[in-house]
Amino acid sequence: MGNPLRQLHANWLAALALAATTSCTGPLVELRPIPVTETPELSTCTAAGAEHCTNVVTFTYLGVGGFLIRAGDDAVMTSPLFTHPGVIRAGTPVLFSISSNHDEVDRQLRRLLGDSMDVEMSRVRSVLVGHSHYDHALDLPYIMQRYTPQARIVGGMTTKRILVGDPWISAHRSQIDSIPLIDAATPWRVGEWVPVANGHMRVMALRSSHASNFLGITIAPWHRTTDRHDLPRTSWGWLLGDPYAYIIDVLDARGLPVFRILFQDAASRPVDALLPPFAPSDDRPVDVAIICAGNYENVESYPQILAGAVRPRFMFVGHWEDFFKSMDKPATPIWFTNTTELHDRLDTVMRGRWYTPEPGGRIRVRYSG
User: Fold this and answer.
1) How remote is the C-alpha of 36 from its chain's centroid?
2) Among residues 65, 64, 23, 61, which one has the least CA distance to residue 40?
3) Is residue 14 assigned to a domain?
4) Residue 62 in contact with residue 112, Cβ under 8 Å?
5) Within a domain: residue 30?
6) Which residues 6+ apart lie within 8 Å of 102 measured at CB?
7) In whole angstroms, what is the distance from residue 176 CA to residue 195 CA?
8) What is the dihedral of CA 153, 156, 161, 167, to 10 degrees?
9) Whole-model pTM?
10) How confident is the model at residue 10 (pLDDT cuts 50, 70, 90)?
11) 220: number of CA atoms within 13 Å, CB side?
12) Is 310 a domain residue?
């Protein structure tokens, strides 16, 4: 894989240089970021059912693709990133290596979750990994060992084959629910439900896709076919694998869905906006769709087609901030993101019902069930 990797890496650097001379990052205000000092409280209930609207799902944004999603005493987490290597180190693997900065993970988790960190992390029952690029998986082995040793990892085969390169993950590989592509849901086939939190929640992987990064080039676009014996040394060792989106359901005492979330950690093709043909007992509207701001312009009509197909009550914007700089600095949009265009696309379909939390910010959504 040496020659193809060097060629693709050269193309990536050329594309990055060209993008830097032809693109600019739009203003942050267009994303309407919600300060961490504010906690919007939304509701999926009608006025007639307001008195029964007593249940709450809390979304805490951890940065990049990371959300902590809690219902009662149970939570799922989508894989966050706290180690930010910088664009030169991440983009030039021939010269530089990267690894998880454990001190930074500890410090940022404490900063974002405060005194409730230990309690919040102890509630995590599953960690969902949409794909295996470094900005979604680099910190996961340490987070699992240090903060969520009781949780299960849900992800694709490449995700598992990379993560078992970590000794602790390898020793606990039975906690990985690795989903082959053939078992993921498609617009014409329902996938397998993975139970979470003793049946209080469940998740289903959906086949998805990953928008190109620059000029049609996607970094590390390959699959891993064998287990690693160590973790990747460079950013390009964290291979894409099969991208998945996830349906996350909160269930009632009968095991029926009463709150539904669609999560994406990469902008996807229009065909991936279609949900599988659920059985009547499993069917319900999507209450919250979490989308990815990064590279959205490289996909036609994203996220409008997704919103039109799924018709979520609310949409939350994730993976929107520059992850090449320290999280201690004020959050700014990912490089070259046309925030004005994204604002207009979102408003066209969501009519103001979209929200962009800052890292550490929370949004509460009430529901009846």
Assistant:
1) 19
2) 61
3) no
4) yes
5) yes
6) 142, 146
7) 13
8) -10
9) 0.93
10) low
11) 23
12) yes
Per-residue pLDDT, averaged over 286-290, amounts to: 98
Share of the chain above pLDDT 70, in %: 93
Residue ranges making up the domain that contains 247: 24-367
SS (H, E, C) the chain: CHHHHHHHHHHHHHHHHHHHHHCCCCCHHHHCEECCCCCCEEECCCHHHHHHCCEEEEEEEEECCEEEEEECCEEEEECCCCCCCCHHHHHCCCCCCCCCCHHHHHHHHHHHHHHHHHHHHHCEEEEECCCCCHHHHCCHHHHHHHCCCCCEEEEEHHHHHHHCCCHHHHHCHHHEEEECHHHCEECCECCCEEEECCCCEEEEEEECCCCCCECCECCCCCCCCCCCCCCCCCHHHCCCCCCEEEEEEEECCCCCEEEEEEECCCCCCHHHHCCCCCCHHHCCCCCEEEEECCCHHHCCCCCHHHHHHHCCCEEEEECCECCCCCCCCCCCECCCCCHHHHHHHHHHHHCCCEEEECCCCEEEEEECC
**Cis peptide bond N-terminal to 333, omega within 30:** no
- The structural domain count of the chain equals 1
Yes or no: say if 33 and 357 are a contact pair by the CB < 8 Å rule.
Answer: yes
Average pLDDT across the chain, whole number: 92
What was the pLDDT predicted at 22? 44
Domain CATH for 250: 3.60.15.10
Distance CA(350)–CA(348), nearest Å, equals: 6
**pLDDT for residue 8:** 52
At 127, list the tokens.
């960690």
Question: Cα(235)–Cα(135) distance, rounded to whole angstroms?
Answer: 9
pLDDT band at 48 (very low <50, low <70, confident <90, very high): low
Mean pLDDT of 220-236: 96
pLDDT digits (tens, 9 = 90+) for 154-184: 999 999 999 999 999 999 999 999 999 999 9
Query: Token digits for 26?
Result: 């739009």
Residue 111 lies in a domain: yes
